[in-house]
Specification:
This protein is 71% helix and 0% strand. The protein is mostly helical. The longest helix is centred in the N-terminal third of the chain and has 18 residues, at 2-19.
Length: 41
C-alpha cells in the first residue's frame, strides 16, 4: 500500500515540476534536482 502511495506522490511531484507554469524561467532539470535533493517544491 505504501509503495503505491509513494509512486503516486512521485508522479504528481514530477508532473508539477515539468508542467508548472509559474517557474518558466528556471530550467526543468534544476526543478527536478531541487525536489530530489531537498524534498521541497
Amino acid at each position: 500500500m505504501w509503495m503505491a502511495i509513494a509512486i503516486t506522490a512521485i508522479i504528481f511531484s514530477v508532473g508539477n515540476i515539468l508542467f508548472g507554469h509559474f517557474n518558466e524561467k528556471i530550467p526543468k532539470w534544476k526543478r527536478v534536482t531541487k525536489v530530489v535533493l531537498t524534498g521541497t517544491r
